[in-house]
Amino acid sequence: MTLPLFLLVVVAGGLGAGVRFVVDGVIRSRVRTAFPWATTIINVSGSFALGLVVGATLANLLAPEFAIVLGTGFLGGYTTFSTASYETVQLIRQRRVAASLVSGVLMLVSSVAAAGLGLWLGSAF
Q: Which residues are annotated as a binding site for Na(+)?
């Protein structure tokens, strides 16, 4: 990896984290619930977007370097597995076992399905 590509990935990661912060705040201000909807929506939309990026790259519609900046950088900063894990553990600690199972399973299944759909759409062109 070249230094300029590395720096672009770093900047894109910071931008992705900033966008995640804003999206999280907007969703939390509109949806008042203990269930981690903001993190779920962010991770599912990020998985879909990553699927699109990978699909477009495999279809030679997107340069691999651009895919690295978008996928590893921006979307790596945007999505957040660690927050999802923490929020699910917090639900368990609050003895909200059903909500924790729904959170964990819903996020995993939805994220994988969204990534698959994005991959299919991205490579369909």
A: 76, 79
